[in-house]
Every structure is written in C-alpha cells, then in structure tokens.
Specification:
This protein is about 60% helix and about 10% strand. By secondary structure, the chain is of the alpha+beta class. The strands form two sheets. A six-stranded antiparallel β-sheet has the order 2-3-4-5-6-7, covered by helices on one side. The chain has a three-stranded antiparallel β-sheet with strand order 1-9-8. Strand 4 and strand 5 form a beta hairpin. The longest helix is centred in the middle third of the chain and has 34 residues. It starts with a helix and ends with a helix. The mean pLDDT is about 85.
Amino acid sequence: MNKSGNTMLRAKFTYYFKETFRAHSRAEYREIFSRGLNDDNGGITGTQPWLYVRAFFGLFILFTINVLVLRLTNNSLYIPSVVFLGGVTFTIPFVILLYELYPKRDLSLFMLIGVLVAGGTAAGVLSQIFYEFFPAENKWLVAVRAGLVEELCKLVPAMLAVVFARNKNPYACFLIAATVGAGFSVVEDMGYIFYYSEKYAFNYRSDIQAIVALFVDRGMSSFCTHILWTGAVGWAYSIAKRPFRSVGLAVLAVSIVLHICWDLPLTGFLQALDIILCVVVAAAINIAIVHKTRINILADEVGLTRANEVIISEAKSLGEKLRFTNAANFTFALTCALMSVIVLLLCALPIGMEYQSVEYADRAQFLTFVEGGYNLKKDTDRKYDPLAYNVEERFIDGELTYVVQRVDESGFDGVYYYGYYLSDKTAPDHIAVELDDYTSRITCVEYKFGEESEWAFEVNAELLKEYSYHKDGTVTAVTAAEEFGGYNLLIGLCATGFALAAGCTVIIIALRIKLWRVKDD
C-alpha cells in the first residue's frame, strides 16, 4: 500500500473512532431516527456508524443484569426478559450497523423495525407450515429440508418488502431483505433459548449454563447466517433484469447450499471446517456487496475524492481534548462489556446447585447412566422354570401363589431374581439384580420414550430426578448436581473482575485529569 493509501486508512480509522465514541447530541439522534420520514430525504448522511455500538452495549448489559437476577432468585418472571434480550442483543445492533452504513437518507429505521417484526414472523409461520407437509426421516434430510424450506420462506416476505419499499437501490434491497432474515433469526434465537433453557430445567431451576451458551452461540452465528443469506438474495434481486432466472437464482441457490451445509450433522474437525467455510463464503459475499454498493452510492452522490478529503480533514481536526474524551468513553464501555462477560461466566458456574441437567445423545446412552455402566441383562420374557430353586415362596390359604427364582446369568454382572405369579408363568412380574457394590437388590423398571419403552435396572435411581425424551432422539435428565470444585476458576474470575474494575477506574480517572489540564491550558 502506498503512502496516500496508508494516510487514508489511518484517517478512516481515526474518524471512525471519533464518531463512535464521542458524545452525540440530541440533534444527531433526531437525525438518524428521522431518516426516511421527512419530505426532504435526499443526499447522503455524511456520518460514520455509532448508534449500533450503544445499542449493543446497552442490550448486553441489560441481558447480563437480568441473567444475574434470574440466577440469584430463580424468579420465573425474569425468563421472558432473558429470552427476549438473548434473542436481540446481537441481531438488532447488527441491523443498525448495516443501516448506518447505508449512505442515503431515504430509508427509515422504524420501517426496518416493522419489516423485521412482520417479515420475520411471516417467514417463521410459512416455514412451520411447510415443515408439517415435508417431514424428514433422518438428520441429513433435516438439514436439507431446513435449507430449502427456510430460505424459500424468507424469500417471500423479503421480496414483498422490497417491492412495497419501492427502492431499487441495491444496498437498500440488500438491507430490507437482510432485515427479514434478522427478524427470522430473532424469532428462532428466542425460541432456542427458551426451549433449551427450560428443556434442561424442568421444575428445579432455569439452566443458566444453557442460556449463556445459547446466547453466545446463536448471537455470534447471527453475523453469518440468516441475515447475510437473505440479504444477498435481496441484492441479487435488485441488480438482475430477470431476478429468478439469472443472478438472483444463483445467489438463492448459494444461500440454500450454505444453509444446508451449516446444519449438516457433522462432528469434530469436519464440523469445524464446515462452519468455517460457511462463515468465510457468506462473509466474503456480503462484505463485497456492502462495500461495492456503498462505494457506488458515494461516487454517484459526492465523488470518492471529495468524500475522502472530508474524512482526512475530520481526522486531522481531532484535537487533544476530544481524543482523551473518546479514550475515556471507550475505556468505560469496554469495562462494562468485560465485567458483563465475567458476571455471565460466574452465573454459569454450578455453585450451590442441587440439580444439574445432562443431555444424552440417545436413549441407549441415557440407560447406560441409569444402570451405572454395568453390563446387565433385562430378560423380560423369561418364563417360569419349575425345576429351578425358589429362593422365596408365598402362600395364600396354604397354596403356593408367588415365587422368586435366583439365576446366575453367564457373561453379565450380578445375580438375578425373577418373581412370578404362578397363575401367569409366561413373564416375570418382578426382576431385580444383586450387585457386589450394593447391599440391596436393584429393581428393573420400564422407561417410556415416546410411544416406545425399554427396561433398565435403576442403579442410579437416587441420582436421577426426572428425564424427558425429545423428538430428535435425545434425552435430557435432571440429576443430583456434583459438588462444585472449581474454586481456582472462581477465585480467578473474581480476581480478574476486581483487577479489571480497578485498572479501568485508574485509567478513566487519569484521562479525566488530563482533560481538566487540557481545558485549563
């Protein structure tokens, strides 16, 4: 990069930092919220993005506070606010960022919020309808179905929103369609956070670990999934003369393929590679779209040379006082964000928990836990053996009615006891096993999994509180929690929090003192 290029890059970074972290007036807030609503909406904004940072920090801190209250009180009234904030904290600021990067003033933020709510809801309803008509037999078909159904269902409200907006600017079409994808993402993220937090909690305690993990997972993935996939289709629609026969169809196909690849049931290295490739491809396509369309708008409206000269001039005018003010504001925002991260990690630690939730990949894995890992035989069809020795016999009016027979099963752990009513000798009424590590016999019990059932010996009956079988084949169990032993981690997090708060306080005070001196000079 040549010298002029380096100068421009430094100027852009300085100007961006200045606009992001300086104090903004009411007039600037009024301007950004009134775009697209006035009679005169011509020209360009001439500003750098700044509102999205405030939106993200505000939502992130609010989410942290609500999670902390839920963790301390387990008050179910806070679950809706945690679910809502968990679904919007990453997505809404990202939409605001894309809106602020749009140079023209002919789109309203309130209109985009309406598109987000209505378009996201419509896409969600359509997808659920189609899911009912197209069931999937396995996880691979589920991934294919999700990619086809969801991308096509988002396409319908996205195209309707673009048509009703009557704005053929490629960036505007990209932004409107991306907002529909964001609405769908919010609905989906809120659903995941609510479902899995409650799926693991039952009647004991909302699973904060699941809430925090899903908040991060779904939030970070929102930057490279629904928003970008749908936005790219909106952009392609705007530039194609025959939208569904040329570029538009090709971009739609890419979005569907990326969605399918994202949902593939891979594990380990292959899953990581698959996700990385999906992120890189989606990000590269959409960064190119945003950059190209934004540059074209600036070139048509003011000329790139003039725009660059304005940025360089603004960067050079950044005085010492403003630099220290911005540094103090940035330090404060970063401190709040990092402290929120530490609080969320502390909330997720299993301290003082009586119960914990564990998810098992299938019912066989769950039953292995129930049976304590022993190799046990469940012979529920074993018939009564009249020649075998009866270890127990029960009589009614002198007549033998019930017997218990002892059997040593070769190749299996323990000694087995089968109880029979002599009126029905075809199947045992009672099955138990005697293990060397346990003083009492362990009963074999039937466990329900949907419409099916399996028998298992309740070796860990005292640990298991509840279990739930899910349509995807997984089983979630509530068990007695293990005693928390990660005190080194707890001490480390607390020490980091105190050190961070103290260090940032010193920095902010030092910057404020410097500001007073600059003012006095």
